[in-house]
Amino acid sequence: MNYQITHTGTLKTTVDLPASKSISNRALILNALSYSPYDVQHLSDCDDTRVMLQVLNSNDRDFNIGAAGTSMRFLTAFLSKIMGEWTITGTERMKNRPIKPLVDALNALGGRVEYMEKEGFPPLRIFGSSLQGGEITLPGNISSQYISALLMIAPLMENGLILHLSGTVISKPYIRLTIQLMADYGVKTDWKENTIRIRPQNYTPVPFTVESDWSAASYWYAMAALQKTADIRLTGLFKNSLQGDSEGAKLFAQLGVSTTYTADGVQLGHNGNRPDKLHYNFINEPDLAQTFVVVCVLMNIPFRFTGLQSLKIKETDRIEALKTELKKLGYCLTDSNNSILEWNGERCQAEAHPVIATYEDHRMAMSFAPAALVREGGIEIAHPEVVSKSYPLFWHDLKKAGFILTEL
Question: Of 287, 317, 335, 397, which is the active-site residue?
């Protein structure tokens, strides 16, 4: 199934955003580790979180988590601490997403995790036990999900954990998010320079409510950037958010979108800004990169974006996917160093009837959808169902906002 997406007139809507997937999945792990009697409130209704709930509430020992990367990393660490023998697998793409840094770390800390097929990749066989813990070093430029997975089980290791991060540490906000949530559940950490120390201690059960998702908000910010007359309210967002992607509000201000915080969320407006060229290092907000790449080309704003190294190991190789799909629309992007993507205004022949492939990647679908506001005839997107991974009601919310979605 494909969607042809169009919109005419002024965009005016109020959007009840989904809960944060990043917070939901961490809170579920911490809730389980604290043996909490409370249910986590306002959980994300996305694939990743549903998978996490299914595993945590299951009596099975063999799990298929589909395409849920966060769940794969967090549950691998979690199950390593739970007595028993477990297997965990996923989609074919998941079987090609690396997990060796986490497996090596767990085994070094007294765990036993084995590869069932290809070295360095899922599926995994996990022999859960009491982890000894200790002192290890990991590259700072690996996925923050590996680091967060280890940090959350660290207090329950016999000797705690001393984690040294070598080189440049990417995605620091996600690590800070994990540490803050751990603090909410009563665990103290010590992060000085590139070393994180966590002594043995117990989590404390607490009632917990998840805030709305700033990553999901970014697509509505993109629409506000593309249509100056847009009137958009987003509920459940907070100025002092735990989420790194809340920085998107400041970044979108450079593209003309103003943010007014209200009692229940934000009101988007326009400030008249328009840069000649946008330079930004997405090292701390990699999930916003696709949105900004698409918005900038549609606004004809050249850019140079760095810090994108983690994009190559996401649901798809997002750098290549962006280059391929934007070329269909007539925009020629270049990349370098596996971490830089730029556009200096180069145009190429657009396809007569472009169809945006989504590569089983929710963010590809949602980052291209706003193009319907500015492209004559709208935009056609393949496999739109992929949004269920993080924002299941995305298309519903677009229809509510006056977009026309035609199934093809």
Answer: 287
pLDDT of residue 242: 84
Pairing of strands 334-336, 303-306: unpaired
Q: Which residues contact 20 (CB under 8 A, 6 or more apart)?
A: 44, 210, 211, 212, 213, 214, 215, 243
Active site residue 287: yes
In this predicted model, what pLDDT tens digit does every residue of 353-403 receive, in sequence order? 999 999 999 999 999 999 999 999 999 999 999 999 889 999 999 999 999
Tell me if 292 sits within 8 A of 275, measured CB to CB: no
| Range(s) of the domain holding residue 268 | 2-17+212-407
Q: Mention every residue, 6+ apart, whose C-beta is less than 8 A from residue 241.
A: 211, 214
Residue 172: both structure tokens together: 């620091």
Strand partners, 340: 336
Which residue type occupies 63? F
Q: The domain that contains 168 carries what CATH number?
A: 3.65.10.10
pTM for the full model? 0.83
- In the chain the first and final C-alpha atoms are separated, in Å, by 6
Task: Give me Rg for the CA atoms of the chain.
Answer: 21
Q: How far apart (Å, rounded) are the C-alpha atoms in residues 295 and 285?
A: 16
